[in-house]
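TL;DR need structure tokens for one chain.
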Amino acid sequence: MKHADIVQRFEEWLKTKSLKLTKPRRRILDRAFATHEHFSAEELHAWLVTEPGEKTSRATVYRTLALLQEAGFLQALDAERGEMVYEHVLGHHHHDHMLCLSCGRIEEFHDDRIEQLQLEACKRKGFELVSHDLRLRGYCRKCTKKSAAVKRT
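>> reply
TL;DR here they are.
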């Protein structure tokens, strides 16, 4: 999806809430969609502080992230770091996450077999699925190798 279309859709959504696309909101939207990484509100605020442009308060970052999430532009993920992390989901296909308990790495993945099993489980229980998220917790390849190396010494 083109960035101009994303901006237009957010502006239209804000109007339904009797809100405007202010310069700080636009700056936050632009920066959030400029990365393909998961990011926290604090990381986003730090990026905005170090980059040229109008000053944007921490409170405005948090409020705008909440609006972007409510509008379906961003998704929040509890990555068990003590703060939520966000990713833009507008125009992206569904995926799940693997969370490394050692280094905090977040690995995205999609598996059609898991998706099908979830749908079958819902059907068996008569459950109407609206959305879901799957987080697998463990240790990434790098941390597993590091741990094995430490155990050998």
